[in-house]
Known about the structure:
The complex is a heterodimer.
Chain A: H1 2-26, E1 39-40, E2 45-48, E3 54-56, H2 57-60, E4 66-72, H3 77-89, E5 95-102, H4 106-116, E6 122-126, H5 130-135, E7 142-146, E8 151-157, H6 162-172
Parallel strand pairs in A: 4-5, 5-6
Antiparallel strand pairs in A: 1-8, 2-3, 2-6, 4-7, 7-8
Chain B: H1 2-34, H2 52-66, H3 71-82, H4 97-118
Helix pairs in contact in B: 1-2
Amino acid sequence: MKNKLIxxxxxxxxxxxxxxxxxxxxxxxxxxxxxxxxxNIPIFKAKDFNSNIYTNSEKIFEEDIFYIVNIxxxxxxxxxxxxxxxxxxxxxQSVKLIGLNYRDNxxxxxxxxNEFGNPYSQILIDKDGTxxxxxxxxxxxxxxxxxxxxxxxxxxxxxxxxxxxxxIKLIIK
Amino acid sequence: xxxxxxFIIIFLFISFSSxxxxxxxxxxxxxxxxNVRCLICQGQSVYDSESDFASSIKLIVDRKINExxxxxxxxEFLKEKYGDWIIYDPKLxxxxxxxxxxxxxxxxxxxxxxxxxxxx
Lengths: 173, 120
């Protein structure tokens, strides 16, 4: 009787371990920070890409509309992939696109915009990547949707595609 | 001459305290960076990593220390941006209680078994 109990407990324990490790094998071992709660936009000062004059978050997000903050760089290949989708999104009247030029050479960035078009109503310079950190980004490209209450409501890591653009259009409707 | 001596002493005192404070800030910065995980090369701490993300975090931590933020406030800032996972030393909360309590439970269970076997 006692031996049977020990055997059952051992089998249950080993099965539990098996399930835990099996589930662990299927999980991705790369951590991606998620946005579960709405977060306030960070308060920051940044240089404007065109005028080279400092501006601040209050001035940038002053209108009562949705904003999309897109982190991009001329050296980033996926940014080229998502650029046509951003150009399409920029046609909407209910949203403004803010570009955050991440750790880039300004001349290369200007050439990029001249070649592929400018979907942004304003571009900010993030020379050392610290502005991206304030937004909670860790790479490029990343896109944030900001609602009328100036809260970050969605975050997309990696290039945005048509499916994501449709989702954004539904949010900003 | 006496005034000059006093000026030199004051100058040396200020330089020394400034050096001491920089050294203290550097120690705190390194301590924090060693406890922050790099999200690009996830096996390394930000202190060891050379990625763009890590160098930006180093700048941010340096800036926050100079702004007078305490160690815990800097961890809170990073956790708010990237979640608890960014810190190597997770605190007890609803997601980590199993991690913290399971070893304690196993330890107690071991103690009970040992007590029964040894009968003391």
